[in-house]
Amino acid sequence: MRYRTHLATTVAISLPLMVTSDSLSVESLSFVALGAVFPDIDEPHSYIGRRMIGISNSMKVVFGHRGLTHSLVGLFAAIFIFHLGSTTFGLPLELIYWFAFGYFAHLLQDSFSKKGIAWLQPFSKKRFQSGFRLIYYTTGGIIETLLFVIAILFLIQEMLQLNLSDFSFKYMNQFLH
């Protein structure tokens, strides 16, 4: 799945949760978005991989694409690293939870790809395809494009329904200053 589809679907799912839990902020959206693209750090040609090329190349050599970063162990390792950041730099735990939500959403979305993912790496390389090989997408294919369009339509509907125009202007102004 392309980064834009990961971002659109993850934000479409998390936005109502953020609103109902009163945790909608630029920071929480940023961390859920970071989590949504983070597992692809093991692919140098990915959105995040191109921005962290040295780390990405190393990760791909050591683990391969859709290796450890696309597993529950990778998720817990990333949460642990961010938790260290929480205790060291005072990063709010709530932001780590949103990062973890985005990361898990990425894994779940990739599990519906044609190849699935190995949830239990490094303990097992067995790949699981959540759609039972009946429901799946291929990266860049028509189904993924359809998912992206549907997620964007949901986001537009959510923003209109939740009257997020006030949020947008308030936090964009806060972000710029």
From TrEMBL:
<keyword id="KW-0378">Hydrolase</keyword>
<feature type="transmembrane region" description="Helical">
    <location>
        <begin position="72"/>
        <end position="105"/>
    </location>
</feature>
<keyword id="KW-1133">Transmembrane helix</keyword>
<keyword id="KW-0812">Transmembrane</keyword>
<dbReference type="Pfam" id="PF04307">
    <property type="entry name" value="YdjM"/>
</dbReference>
<protein>
    <submittedName>
        <fullName>Metal-dependent hydrolase</fullName>
    </submittedName>
</protein>
<keyword id="KW-0472">Membrane</keyword>
<feature type="transmembrane region" description="Helical">
    <location>
        <begin position="134"/>
        <end position="156"/>
    </location>
</feature>
<dbReference type="InterPro" id="IPR007404">
    <property type="entry name" value="YdjM-like"/>
</dbReference>
<dbReference type="GO" id="GO:0016787">
    <property type="term" value="F:hydrolase activity"/>
</dbReference>
